[in-house]
């Protein structure tokens, strides 16, 4: 119950900054209808200098689907889920293999 209260409180913010893979951030942005700012965290190999800019704006308020299906059971082949789904589906900002819905006017 405390976790739900925290996510709800986050959704009431005017500005939301989330870290990659943040479940609390995804829930809060969905409830509040917010397009969050995402922290740009450097990869471990590139930790020499901080990334510029430190944050970037997410392309939509939709959460990232981290584990989209990649196997077509009918055709029995591995597929890229983004191919053939059209402009409303793009790869996530924080997870290169994840998918999210966007308003096609923003891409």
From TrEMBL:
Transcription regulation listed as a keyword: no
Record's keyword terms, sorted: Cell wall biogenesis/degradation, Glycoprotein, Glycosyltransferase, Golgi apparatus, Transferase
Membrane topology recorded in Swiss-Prot or TrEMBL: Single-pass type II membrane protein
Locations listed in the record: Golgi apparatus, Golgi stack membrane
GO biological process: cell wall biogenesis; cell wall organization; xyloglucan biosynthetic process
Superkingdom of this protein's organism: Eukaryota
EC number: 2.4.1.-
GO molecular function, one term: galactoside 2-alpha-L-fucosyltransferase activity
Function: May be involved in cell wall biosynthesis.
Family that this chain belongs to: Belongs to the glycosyltransferase 37 family.
Protein name from the UniProt record: Fucosyltransferase
Record organism: Linum trigynum
Highest classification ranks of the organism: Eukaryota, Viridiplantae, Streptophyta, Embryophyta, Tracheophyta
